[in-house]
Design goal:
This protein is of the alpha/beta class and 559 residues long. It is built from 21 helices and 18 strands. The strands form 6 sheets. The chain has a 6-stranded mixed beta sheet with strand order 6-8-7-11-13-12, with helices on both faces. A 3-stranded mixed beta sheet has the order 1-2-4. Strands 16-15-17 form a 3-stranded parallel beta sheet. The C terminus is likely disordered.
């Protein structure tokens, strides 16, 4: 824990962060300690945790097993709390185009298109597709096909409708959407097709099919966060800001995507609507909590989706489903109209089939709200200029940070070895340099994250929770909320003190390197236990493995 002193009867005292000798820090892998429960065992465990008499004993034992009590209550942390990410001044980025946030999203997307290499239809519309039938169509492929008369949004809509029905009727079922209206989808697609017929498409996103996670408002659908009741206590009158920006660009919304209930899990298990399954191996989880969005994009039913991410909820399912997930900087996207709007770690961001598509979608949805511009002072919104001749050799100057011991702390060495091969290929092809770094106090970061996101999630729900809605929640959600309810105000403040330390360590690393590379998760997609389908599953060990790497740079820091 960054050094310190302790004696008999004395609490541990952490060394002030600026005095820690980072080079002397040794990596200490630690696994999450908690039972894996389904069925009757999960019911009994939740009953114990919610018991007024026994609950405090159970949660106290869990926290002590995972060193949380010592870390948060028996340790003197000298740093001031950091309640919101504080971004230090940054040098202007090289090789990017600044896109003004106050511009219309249609104009921002067009500017992003101009930064991409010229589109070559021969790479898509040739016999090569027959040799590689599972090659995803990118957004610009659809745009070209619409403009060239190869297909229409209405024709694609019929394929999407048939695909959704096919997946829903499979044995086992693949419930990727919790709300789907074929007639509304046809209506949106016909309006887009008409714009193309008239030679007046709105943007490159016109006619592109998107899914929206169920904790993001997309009128007229309700937002339940995959619960059975949330629409009864929160009515929807308009789109979330990020959805409105996409709608302005001509996007077609296929419906509300399934998710882990309230976003409080990394598997995607949902006993309310059924569990979305991994399209590449239907006996495995997608990862979560943005399970439906990842499954829809991975299956090819839509080009992109918008999810939310506070601890890996976009990145984990994207990784396990083989697509691209981007967690944007905290505050970069306006969260108005998103259920998880009151925290200090959540963002709304894209899941896509390619990095190019992430860039286009990001250009449409990005833009901070006015209050965040004042408090967070974000850097100017920008996208990489991939056509500039000045950028042809820019990767040769990029330094990639790698914390080797942490990089290889995964459940299967094949994961880290594959990632290392990809990293070596990047460096040998483009001339990047790998620099060894050390990131101290990663276990402290995990603890600070759990307390931060857990306390903030419970605070959002607390009034309704106290009125008795907990019995309408799934058992794994109830277990999580019972644990979160055991955190005290001093635990929360201590976590924000740790946040400042973690921010310092990462900023020190970024003095040496430009990016930090890790495997996205420390595991492959876990198998779905049949006993978990009816009433859910609680497996904090899997959660710990899924979160280990994804919590890093973008978690409490927001860079």
């Amino acid at each position: 824990m960054g050094g310190g002193s302790k004696g008999k009867g004395m609490p541990r005292a952490m060394t002030p962060v600026e005095e820690v000798d980072i080079s002397a820090v040794r990596y200490e892998p630690q696994a999450m300690q908690a039972p894996h429960l389904t069925g009757f065992g999960l019911r009994a465990f939740v009953w114990l945790m919610e018991s007024r008499l026994l609950g405090p004993l159970v949660t106290s034992a869990l926290k002590k097993q995972n060193n949380m009590t010592q870390m948060l209550q028996n340790t003197v942390i000298p740093e001031r709390p950091m309640y919101y990410p504080e971004f230090p001044p940054q040098e202007p980025e090289q090789g990017v185009v600044v896109v003004a946030e106050d511009r219309d999203p249609v104009d921002r997307v067009e500017e992003a298109v101009q930064c991409l290499t010229p589109y070559d239809p021969s790479t898509r519309f040739t016999s090569a597709d027959e040799k590689n039938p599972f090659l995803y169509w990118k957004i610009r492929d659809f745009a070209y096909a619409y403009r060239s008369g190869i297909t229409t949004p209405s024709a694609v809509a019929e394929h999407v409708i048939a695909g959704v029905e096919e997946w829903n009727n499979k044995k086992p079922a693949m419930p990727m959407l919790v709300y789907f209206n074929a007639d509304d989808l046809r209506k949106q697609a016909d309006a887009s097709a008409k714009r193309f017929e008239q030679g007046n498409p709105i943007s490159v996103l016109d006619g592109i099919f998107f899914a929206i996670k169920d904790d993001i408002d997309c009128f007229p659908y309700p937002s339940k966060s995959a619960t059975t009741f949330f629409d009864k206590i929160r009515l929807i009158e308009k789109d979330a800001v990020c959805v409105a920006r996409l709608r302005k660009c001509g996007v077609i919304f296929i419906g509300k995507a399934n998710m882990h209930e309230l976003g409080l899990g990394v598997t995607g298990n949902n006993a309310n609507y059924g569990t979305a399954r991994n399209p590449h191996s239907i006996d495995r989880y997608t990862g979560g909590s943005s399970s439906g969005p990842a499954a829809l994009v991975s299956s090819g039913l839509c080009s992109a989706a918008i999810g939310t991410d506070g601890g890996g909820s976009v990145r984990i399912p994207s990784s396990l489903c083989g697509i691209v997930g981007l967690k944007t900087t905290y505050g970069r996207t306006d969260l108005t109209g998103v259920l998880c709007d009151a925290g200090t770690v959540e963002v709304a961001s894209p899941l896509t089939a390619s990095v190019e598509d992430s860039m286009l979608v990001y250009s449409a949805v990005a833009g901070s709200r006015s209050t965040d511009k004042i408090t967070l002072r974000p850097s100017p919104l920008s996208v990489p200029n991939l056509v500039s001749s000045d950028n042809s050799d820019i990767l040769q100057s990029v330094k990639v940070g790698k914390y080797t011991e942490w990089f290889h702390d995964v459940s299967d060495s094949e994961i880290s070895n594959t990632c290392e091969d990809a990293l070596n290929l990047l460096c040998s092809t483009f001339g990047c340099q790998i620099e060894e770094i050390i990131l101290p106090e990663l276990e402290e970061m995990r603890t600070a994250h759990v307390v931060s996101i857990g306390s903030e999630a419970l605070c959002d729900l607390n009034a309704h929770y106290q009125e008795g809605i907990r019995t309408e929640l799934t058992f794994d959600t109830r277990a999580s909320l019972a644990l979160f309810g055991s955190f005290t105000s001093t635990d929360y403040v201590a976590s924000q003190r740790l946040r400042r330390r973690i921010m310092y360590y990462h900023m020190e690393a970024f003095k040496k390197v430009d990016v930090i590379a890790t495997p996205t998760t420390g595991m492959t997609a876990p198998k779905i236990p049949p006993s978990a389908l009816k009433i859910g599953e609680s497996d904090y060990v899997v959660s710990g493995k899924g979160l280990r790497q994804s919590l890093a740079v973008q978690k409490l820091i927001g860079v």
